[in-house]
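Working notes for the structural subgroup meeting. M.R. asked for a predicted model of this chain before we commit to crystallization trials. I am recording the input and output together here so anyone reviewing the notebook later can reproduce the run.

Input as submitted:
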Amino acid sequence: LREQQFAASLTKVLRGEADEIYGDPAKFFPNTYPTGGLRSLLTESLGRLGGSKLSNAPIIRLETSFGGGKTHNLIALLHLCRGGISPKAVSRFVTPDLLPSQPVEKVAGIVGPDMDVANGIDHGPVRTFTLWGEIAYQIGREAGYDLVRKSDEQRTAPGTQVWEKLIGDEPALIMIDEVAAYLR
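Returned structure, recorded in token form:
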């Protein structure tokens, strides 16, 4: 691996711009060590998202020091939620019965340093300014953003009903990485 490849970027993976070592699940998983923490995250998350273990935690907070693999773990979870991966290829990470039967369609990934509250993030027809604006756009594109537009523009948090409309009864994966940089 080249040295610059050691900086994993969830944003680049989400956009399809990452080096193949992170962006291609067929290369990512053989080059990833299945730590206990990673296996636990995948088991807990996929059990909840797939509906087989609804009592699993709906919110999981990853706690490791800098360089502890939080972003790497989120990329692994993203790849598994997108589907199209051979169960045999990931059997060291998670039991095949927990893999989604179809891709999780509602996925959002926020990376604190990539947010720009003052200038927003330009998505062409939409410019998002806050975590909730960006989450809504990533999950529902323009129609999703329209649900939170006023809150996003006024930098106020939307209420529960907005999230219920946006997500509904479908599984949704929302990942927030390096939130301290955003809060700063």
